[in-house]
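Sample intake sheet
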Amino acid sequence: MIDPKLLREQPDVIREALKRRHYTFDLETLLNIDRQRRENLAGIETQRHLLKQESDEFAKQKSGPNVSPPLHLKQRSKGIKRLEEQLKTYEVRVQSELALIPNIPHKSVPVGDATANQVVRVVGEQPALTFKPKTHLELADSLGLLDFARAAKMTGSHFPLYTGLGARLERALINWMLDVQTKEHGYTEVFPPFLVNREAMFATGQLPKFEEDMYRLKDDDLFLVPTAEVPVTNLHRDEILDEAQLPLGYAAYTACFRREAGSYGKDTRGLIRVHQFDKVELVKFTTPQTSYEEHERLVGHAETILKRLGLHYRVVCLATGDLSFAAAKCYDLEAWAPGLGQYLEVSSCSNFEEFQARRANIRYRATDTRKAAYVHTLNGSGVALARTLVCLLETHQQPDGRILIPEALRPYLDGRTHVDRGAVDRTAR
């Protein structure tokens, strides 16, 4: 959430930010409501002052202990209560409207819609395959790695069912990615709940704007997590951290659930857009002074995964019109899928500055002044499946139809070097 003080003292900053984002919002109505709120508050203070003066005067003049206050004192007191009720209404309206204003983009973010996104760097070369590459769906079907038909029978469309070495490969990727981020990059591993409450979703910016995109349990008002960012960011909700603790970094695996998969009209087959997918998420809590340095470091930690998987990818700085609601700056990591002939987003690494921290009330106490201030929160996919699996299968496919397993994953697959059909055709005894 943006700073209410900014709304009152520098509304032009918000106007400009909304313009840069190409975001439609009736700021003038909010400013008018907030003006009425402040006038109401001033009226309450004036009436309280008058009531105190009149009460003191009455106390001096009354002749006995059982003398009732004059009618005008009672009326003034009732008037103050009415003003206080009005104030509560104004405050609720202001907070509700503030919650609909997106974060202010960092000054380094390019201005424009998605066509203004800037490629920061390109890593590696597109695979020079000597044969026509197959898509991940063709490969998965021939190798018995996925079964969407049975998944649809048990759940519905756009839910994957991994089978045989497909399931093992998914599990290997998750375990390896967690090991890299915890053992090499120093993140603390957590395994959070897959269900979170409304307060947690609001804190990270999913609510109220994106409620329709989420899976919700009606009876309990709990939400299936759209990303581990939600529970992990809420680890320190309503806490004050010591500056010496920062930066704090967490790595977490969760399944992720999103309704949006079927709404795009294209690229919906296979693993490109699914309602449920696996992801290892990285979350950091930092001071404002170090957050952008930590942001770049976090991007590098996500890139480590793609490099060791031998994937060709690019890093893209998103333009203002393509930023997520809560982000001040975001880099997307897009890996190349040869069978599809396109880049796929496999990670988004965002700096939210104090936007989420204000909603979650996460602060830190400065070492020198001992004053409390809001932390900056960062998060990034380290990285997301299933699209990373798509790129892995299509990049490392061999002329004979097998998949070469990257060296980094082999210890997690009993030293296996290839994914092949024979490895998954055994019948359990």
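Comment: Confidence is low (pLDDT under 50) at residues 424-429. The chain has two domains: 4-98, 114-424.
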